[in-house]
Design brief:
Arc Repressor Mutant, subunit A; DNA-binding; 45% helix; mainly alpha; homodimer
DNA sequence: TATTTCTTGACAAAACTAGTCAAGAATTAT
DNA sequence: ATAATTCTTGACTAGTTTTGTCAAGAAATA
């Protein structure tokens, strides 16, 4: 599990691209200047977003980037997974051996699995449109209490 | 935001220590062997947990570690924050300058702030006791929908 | 045809992770 | 007291990852 500048720059760039939709195209250099990011570093990130269908590029004079999808269809969990890789955590250090501690059972996998699920669940409910509209604050939620679990199906 | 082996080893070690509570003390070498972790590396982690009041150490023959708190009072958000540092993410790359993009407003801070909040909220509801009892799976929750936010107070 | 802009891949400094190692301090058993 | 055991602390290090830079090239347009 990690979140580096690369993931943040990706969202930042998408936001800037979306905000320029009226002008149709925005250049890497414009995003880089506006956000104080190295433009050569941004190239890598945008190139990746392009290869995976989030944005489209136009070369040549007056070229630049635009969104390839509608803002509401650009989901943060997809973007972050593309740029940062899958959010996954192993609960114990066993690599090939089956994972059993003194207890005879690894009690830790569940924690990290569920945390990963929680992060993904959160990000999968947030689109670029939500960001543009400032619809983010106050959305996090406490987990379900154990006593509540009994009568529930697990997703 | 990050989660490394150090954080996972910490939880793993706490679990092993808790499971040995009947024997009262467990040695670093026992945990290391049982979980296939370098014992010299574990030393650093347990030393840190000790300095911060999560476990107690007894030196000398038949020495070892035990919990300094009840399992239900060892909260995962505290443990992870101690070992990994604060879960915090900056939404943009501006360092000293006030954070304004083309939009005149940074639309990204909210996303990372809220994600950090979500992670902390999740981990703050999970104690070592929950882990020992296997009470973790199925606890993650979808975020609150934007339209639901209007009538709610933000925590 | 020249200029602009994206494209790709190689390269590299700095920071971080995941350890190792060694000297020492405290405790207990003998 | 002494030896053995166990934790304590801090310095050190190899390897990986992050965060970039750089250069050569391809596509589009004026």
């Amino acid at each position: 599990m990690k979140l580096t500048t690369k993931g943040r720059y990706a969202v930042l760039a998408l936001t800037e691209i979306a905000l320029s939709e009226d002008k149709n195209l925005i250049k890497i250099s414009e995003i880089a200047k506006s956000q104080n990011i190295s433009s050569t570093y941004l190239e890598q990130i945008l190139s990746n977003l392009k290869r995976n269908g989030f944005v489209k590029a136009v070369r040549g004079p007056n070229g630049g980037y635009k969104l390839a999808l509608k803002a509401e269809d650009i989901i943060m969990s997809d973007v972050i997974e593309l740029i940062e890789g899958k959010i996954e955590t192993k609960g114990c250090s066993q690599k090939h051996i089956s994972c059993t501690g003194i207890s005879g059972k690894c009690l830790n996998h569940d924690l990290w699995d569920e945390l990963g699920k929680q992060i993904n669940l959160f990000l999968s409910h947030i689109s670029l449109k939500d960001i543009l509209e400032g619809n983010i604050l106050g959305r996090s939620r406490a987990p379900i209490l154990p006593q509540d679990c009994d009568n529930m199906t697990i997703n």
